[in-house]
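ping. complex inputs:
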Amino acid sequence: MSSQFSTTGAENGSQPRYAAIKAHIRAQIESGEWPAHFRVPSENQLAQDFNVSRMTARRALSELTDEGVLIRSQGLGTFVAEPVPAGSLLEVRNIADEVAARGHSYSNRILKLEQTTASTEVAVALGLTEGSAVFHSIIVHLDNGLPIQFEERYTNPTLVPEYLQQDFSTATPNEYLTRVAPLTEVDTTVEAIGADDTVGSALEIQPGTACLQIWRRTKSSAGTVSFARLVHPGNRYRLGAQLRF
Amino acid sequence: MSSQFSTTGAENGSQPRYAAIKAHIRAQIESGEWPAHFRVPSENQLAQDFNVSRMTARRALSELTDEGVLIRSQGLGTFVAEPVPAGSLLEVRNIADEVAARGHSYSNRILKLEQTTASTEVAVALGLTEGSAVFHSIIVHLDNGLPIQFEERYTNPTLVPEYLQQDFSTATPNEYLTRVAPLTEVDTTVEAIGADDTVGSALEIQPGTACLQIWRRTKSSAGTVSFARLVHPGNRYRLGAQLRF
DNA sequence: TGTACATTCTTGTATATACAAGTTTGTTGA
DNA sequence: TCAACAAACTTGTATATACAAGAATGTACA
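pong. complex structure:
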């Protein structure tokens, strides 16, 4: 019962055993041997192959999952994750078009679509008086079923009165707005943030995960049209920007 | 030997036991009960308090460490991490000043300071011919000893011939360059990336961790001065930007 | 034919144990 | 006084085991 406890510590070349398993899996993926969606050997199989316990093999798989390299599913197995999608420019582009350009299927989830009253912050951003009516929408955009953008948007009802009646499952807010109110100016702020609970659950990521957050205020000739907050999970999306001072 | 295996699964309220421990620790931190640098109870202590095994308590601490909430140190203990520093604007500001403004101590590590020949990409960016001499520097900037920026920079030697002789432990490259060659224009590109091995080890983070990467080309009246790549660990730094189209 | 059940995979949670290794603190002895 | 050592903590790695729970597949029975 306590016989072959060869176990522990730095055995041959100093690195822990689970690291060797991780390195092996990474190598297979990077060499192309194991493509995206490839089914990785099970915990038991790896344990046997590397002559370690299941818990050690499990650690390798778990850490690679945390790092976004693998995807695990109880009862099914462990699979190679798709590489992070290559970025789009930080211009006023449509997220649905970006997804389509990658040959992926676009979909969204409308979490909120309502009329509320403007807070101080929102009123200032939209050039309205505090307490006046504004449209408020929260939509999650998905790439092949995976959330890639959390969009919270406040829209000026005097400029776009029919906003709430739109069918955003076919045309995104951005697409609709640029059609009915051509843009003349865009104010953008970019920051890296850790996801809060709301964003985390919407994007199906751990709270605290680093995300790219973009505040965008779009203006047309008639005034400020819309004020949006776009949050991208850092490990599922890349975004490039060209800015000049 | 196999007596009180009450163990496993969803017992009372469906969530796993380690999650309850995580929630408890988070609550203590968020209530201010456990401030930054506070020493969290040890694995054994938590195991006893929550009546779980050490490995389960350990899991809670490990996950919170991965999430940037705690910092662990072998032999010392587990401590509450500092909250993510509030962001600075995405303008041409000095990282040393930003750190000082937070009341933290600034330091840096010079990983490379050399003269090389320009690759195609670098030559185009600096407006030089391929193969001509350029200065190349890699510096890691630290906030209270913690790496917050990886700076890789190519500098035009015809405009700033004394670059390599500078003492960058007292004045950062950015600080020095803006002094000797006043900026007239700045080209910036922002993206969220996963850290590669080089950046990861320099910033002391796991490869794959989401980071904010900024490409910056600074110009003076005489031409393009410098071409820099700045990488910030997403969970240790926030960065705001104001951009206009 | 088709539904219900058992089997057999998979991953997920949890425990108990063993030892390695880093850090601090106290104690012993030259 | 102070250096060396031992003890008592800490976290880190690794194993063996047990059972829960999800998913697929086969099988038996109505």
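Residues 2, 5, 7-10, 42-44, 58, 61, 72-78 of chain A lie near DNA strand C (CB under 10 Å from a C1').
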